Amino acid sequence: MVQKIFVVVVVALLFSGCSLTSVTAPKIGGTSPGTGAFATQAELGSLWKTDNSGETFVVKSKVNEKTSITKADILSIAYHPQKPMIIYVGTVDSGIFKTENGGDQWTSIPFPPKKIYSFILDKNDPDNRMFASGVVNDWGKIFRTDDGGKTWSDVYTEPGQKTPITALSQHFRDRNTIFAGTAAGTVVKSVDSGNTWKNIGNKIDGIVADIAFDSTKNLSTYLLVFDRKLYYSADGGMQWIDWEEEKQKETAVQNNNRASRVSNLSERNQKNKMPKGIVAIASDPNQSGVIYAGTDAGLFRSTDFGKYWNEINIIESAKKFPIRSIAINPKDSQEIVFVAGKAFYKSIDGGVTWMTTGLNVDRGAAFVAYDPFDSKQLFIGLRNFK
To answer: What CATH class is the domain 2-383?
Structure first.
């Protein structure tokens, strides 16, 4: 079945169950091209794909003739860096899945712990090596496979119990460098593909949900504390900067100068302050210093590494739902997409106007991602959010 686009123009991590279910004939859902009729019943399927830049989406959840990924809660997606059509997805507690035909059929890759908190495909050896974090006997661990998922070994263990590793991220240029963040705000880093690790940076207060990298500056790194704020590092994570604290220090220094200068600085700090309740971030793949933040009440953009922010004028109704995922076209920074609630939003003019595709699905959209080989193709994954 197909989800049809509706156009609207505007001027300007993690803890739910899932399972595999038997394949049955799909119930009425979505809109087939040219029919003009929209179904009233949600269509099942955890993964949806578009081949036409978001105009229509189709279910891509088939495992075999008897089973499909219809109820699995999708955590993340990873594309093979050299081979088109080979894609991996991590789920919350149904393991890892791989497709070699662009999503037409998936095969299961077992993962030892029941629940996955974070998953990445190692771009140094994408045919064999993956990393995933989980909890075994209350110990948060990072696991690595070097044989495509046949066997796994733990390469990092948190020293304290009941502290899961909630974020894993591999640097897209320096591929031996992997960052990991925990639910307790600890950040560790490996520069040898996970063989050894060391603690980096100052203590972070909150759950580390994501770590992203600048498009050109190797050491510029962003860290998201879930539902709170963004931290920035100019030195590869050795020191995390809270921009709001830094701006307060700048204002204090200006107190020794003319009052008008202090007033202007304070006004800008207030007008362009960091948004609250950030749940998703995305670094522009083409422009240095440009970072996007999705919150529970809107979409924001910074062009100076997260120091000052401007709200993007998205469709007002989208602000009623958390923006769970943002993606920028790797070939065109003017094209921005995000998911909120059960809808897909896309702008081709840097956020001035938007079109939206309503998804007649049974859960919220958890992520959206561009295919690096064909930017007309995108995947959306679904999850239950509590």
So the answer is: mainly beta
